[in-house]
Amino acid sequence: MIGLLTLESPMSLDLYRELRASLATGEPRVLATVADTRGSTPRKAGAQMLLRPDGTFSGTIGGGCGEAEVWQEAMETMADGQPRTVLVDLTEPVDGDDKICGGVMRVFVERIG
Amino acid sequence: MPDAVPSSTAAIVEAIEAALAGGPPVVVATVVTGGAGDLPAGAKMLVRDDGRTLGSLGSTEADETIREVAVAAFTAVPRIVTATWRLDGRAATDRPSQAAEGATEVMVQLFEAPARLVIVGAGHVGLALAKIAELLGYETTVVDDRPEFANRERFPMAQQVIVDAVGPALDALTLDASTGVVLVSRGHRVDEEALRHAVGRGAGYVGMIGSRRRTRTVLDHLAAEGFPAEALEAVSTPVGLDIGAETPEEIAVSILAEITMLRRGGTGMRMSRNRTSGAG
User: Fold this and answer.
1) Closest Cα in chain A to B207
2) How far apart are CA B67 and CA B117, in angstroms?
3) Largest Cα–Cα distance of chain A, in whole Å?
4) Which of A75, A95, B22, B173 shows the smallest number of beta carbons within 10 Å?
5) Do A35 and B107 touch (CB under 8 A)?
6) How many CB pairs under 8 A join A and B?
7) Among the partner residues A4, A24, A110, nearest to B115 by beta-carbon distance
8) What does the domain layout of chain A look like in residue ranges?
C-alpha cells in the first residue's frame, strides 16, 4: 500500500535547471550518475553530479570517496563526448588506511549537449 | 566529433526538471552498455506513468521491454529510484547474477518531487515531527485549528501552515503517493475526524497516534460508516515503530523511522542482527 517516494534533494532540481539552461545555450555538461552499488557506499544509485567545461561541478556522488576518479573520467568525456562507465572500488585500503566507504559503485558518465 | 544532441534529449531534461519541481513523475531509461544488442550508450527514453514514451534506446524491442519495466516502476513498493536492468531480447532482469553474458544494460531512473509530510496537530508531537522531517528533507504542511499553535513563529521550517478545521483543510490538499499524513492532533476525536478526510485519498502513508484500544475504536467507527476495509487496514495505527518512545521527540523519531522504513523497504530490525560472525 505504501508508495511514499524517495527524497530528491533540492540540489537535484538545481542540477536539472542548470542542465536545461546549458542545453539552451549550447554549452556542454557531463552528467555522472551512480548506476548501481554493492556494499557500503556514500551515495546510492541515482546520485548525480553535473560537471562544467571548466571542471567545476554541482551535486555529489560521494564526496571524497571516489569522486576524484569520476571527475577525471568525466573530464575525458567532456573532451571526447564518449560515454563511460567508471567502476569505483572503495574496498581497497589506501596507504595502509581503510577507506571509510567500503563498497563498489558503477558510475555512468555521459556528455549532454 | 560527438554526435549532435538528439532533439528528444532537451525535452527529456525539461520533463525531469518539471517532475522534480512537482509535476508528473517520469521515468528515464539510459543505455549504459550497448552489449550484444549494440545499442548506443547514452541513448535515452522517457516513459510517463500512462506508458507514453519520448525518445528511443535504439531498438523497438528494447524500447518496449524497458517501457514495461518503467511503467511498473511508478507503482513499485518499495520505491526504487534507480536500477540497472540487463536485457536479453525481450527478457529483462535487475539482478546482475541472472544476466546473460554481454547483456545490454539500461539504467532506469524515477524522477519525482520531494516527499511531503502533512502533520495534523501543531502540538508537541507535531512540532517535533516538523523539526525532524525538515532534517530528513521533507516538505511539511502543518494543520491545526488553533492559531496560537499553528503559526509561522512556531513552525518556521514548514512549507505551509494551515489554520482551519481538519476536515476542510485536508480536503483542500492533494494527497498523492509521495505524501505522508500523520494525525497527531490534540485529541482522538479530532484525529478521527481527520482520518475521515485522509483515508482512501491516495496518500502513500497515513498514520494516526493513539493507544491500541482508542485507535481500534476509531477504525471501527469508520468501518461502520462504510469506509473500505482495505483502506482502513492500511492506516498505520497505533503509529510508529516500537522503539519505546516516550517524549514527543522520541515519538516523532518512531513515526519518521516507520515512514522511512516503508519508503526504503527496510525491515525495522536491528542492523546488528545481521552482523557477520567473527567480525570485530
Assistant:
1) A2
2) 30
3) 48
4) A95
5) yes
6) 123
7) A4
8) 10-19+27-112
Nearest by CB to residue B13, choosing from A4, A10, A16, is A16
Q: What are the chain A neighbours of B17 within 8 Å (beta carbons)? A: 13, 16-17, 19-20
* The total number of residues written for chain A in this structure: 113
**B33 contacts in chain A (CB < 8 Å):** 85
B92-137 per-position pLDDT tens digit: 888 866 666 678 999 999 998 888 999 999 999 999 999 999 888 8
Class (C level, CATH) for B116-264: alpha beta
Q: Do A13 and B17 touch (CB under 8 A)?
A: yes
Q: How many CA atoms lie within 13 A of B109 on its CB side?
A: 27
Task: Give residue-wise pLDDT tens across range B255-268.
Answer: 999 999 998 888 99
Q: Where are the domains of chain B?
A: 9-111, 116-264
Q: Which of A5, A13, A112 is nearest residue B21 as measured by Cβ atoms?
A: A13
Pull the grid cell for residue A14.
538545481
Please give the DSSP secondary-structure letter assigned to residue A94: B
Give this complex's ipTM.
0.85
Q: Which pLDDT band, with edges at 50, 70 and 90, does A48 fall under?
A: very high
pLDDT score for B280: 46
Residue-wise pLDDT for B166-215, tens only, equals 999 999 998 988 899 999 999 999 999 999 999 999 999 999 999 999 99
Beta bridge partners of B162: B143
